[in-house]
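Protein in question passed on here:
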Amino acid sequence: MTDAGPHEQRFREVVGGVVRRMEDRFGAVTAYGEMVGLLAAGDQLVAALELESMWSRLMAECRLRLLCGYPSEHVAEGTPYESVCAAHDAVSAPRALSAVIDLPLGAEASARARRAAVGVCRAWGVTDPEWIDDAGLVVAELVGNAVRHSASPVALSLDTHDNRITVSVTDGSQALPQPRTSHELAEDGRGFGIIAALSEAWGVERHPSGKRVWARLRPHHLELPGATPAPI
């Protein structure tokens, strides 16, 4: 920021630099735009709109999804920020959370990922032990496959949307996973067939520096903390 408002060159150097480093590592980035919310809370509408424009130009250059976190009272109908809402693809009051865990390469990665995923799901209000066990199996297989076929860092992500949890694993290998039949088991005894059986859907997304393998777990009631309505 300067006395005249957001400074685009600084924005591109600082924020753009972080986004590009994360894009190189994970292939795609989701950013939470808290800065525009702070400007809105300070009644700096012009500065918030300028910052939105800077984000838009950065999004045109990167694989970037932006969630702009405005205070709900500033984006209600009849407020000056209606124009901000109109500039976004959608406006919602999401009850969503996400978590990202960097994992070590090696035999302990699957077990560590499974423990972390179970802990996150419990923290998000999941109480069904059978559902939690199934989620742990899916995570262990996704991570195990990534570790076996990649010498790059591996990261586990968990995201909530519409009362579902999606788990995904990113790594630096371009090699796509080879699904196995139900009688063909992976080295740790868990084939990709079990992911299909325990998930609502799964898939693979390639990106320039590797791939992301994801699985959307079956619906389960989540008791998530409240979230501030945010244009998306």
Observations:
- The chain has seven helices and nine strands.
- The helical segments are 8-26, 34-41, 45-59, 82-86, 108-123, 129-149, 192-198.
- The beta strands are 29-33, 64-68, 91-92, 98-103, 154-161, 164-171, 199-207, 210-217, 230-231.
- The longest helix spans residues 129-149.
